[in-house]
UniProtKB/TrEMBL annotation:
UniProt KW keywords: Mitochondrion, Ribonucleoprotein, Ribosomal protein, Transit peptide
Pfam families: Ribosomal_L37
InterPro entries to which the protein is assigned, alphabetical: Ribosomal_mL54
GO cellular component terms listed in the entry, alphabetical order: mitochondrial large ribosomal subunit
GO MF: structural constituent of ribosome
Entry's localization field: Mitochondrion
Chief location of this protein within or outside the cell: mitochondrion
Similarity comment: family membership: Belongs to the mitochondrion-specific ribosomal protein mL54 family.
UniProt name for this protein: Large ribosomal subunit protein mL54
Length: 132
């Protein structure tokens, strides 16, 4: 029996012990971080740094141009024209509040579009309540 135990001990030392002491990875190695500044890690991964957008402070440009209207790299913002060069209907647009459905005329397209929109919203809310 002593020979049998010595053989088992030799087998353990040669086969089992090296496998336990030095496990081999079977998955990919994480890529190394790029040299330079490191990004902070949050719960969901690296946090993006906020971009600082330049704000126009020139009063003359703010009064005479529509700032931000040029989204291309070249060119200029749109220059503001005098009020007489714009169409008359532009000054009659409702910018104050949404007109309630009760105040709209039922013979207009605007009334029926608003009614359809409200009905769609109501149906969507009701479908959320269904339990199946």
């Amino acid at each position: 029996m002593s020979n049998f135990t010595t053989v088992l001990n030799l087998v353990r030392q040669r086969l089992i012990a090296p496998a336990l002491s030095n496990p081999v990875r079977s998955y990919a190695v994480k890529p190394a971080a790029p040299a330079g500044k490191k990004k902070k890690l949050g719960k969901l991964g690296p946090i993006m740094e906020k971009k600082i957008i330049p704000v126009e402070t020139d009063a003359n440009k703010l009064v005479n141009y529509v700032c931000g209207s040029n989204y291309l790299k070249t060119g200029q913002d749109v220059k503001i024209k005098p009020d007489s060069e714009y169409p008359e209907w532009l000054w009659t647009l409702n910018t104050e509040r949404i007109i309630p459905l009760d105040e709209l005329d039922p013979n207009t397209k605007q009334y029926w579009r608003r009614l359809r929109k409200l009905a769609l919203r109501r149906n969507n809310q009701l479908s959320k309540l269904k339990k199946f």
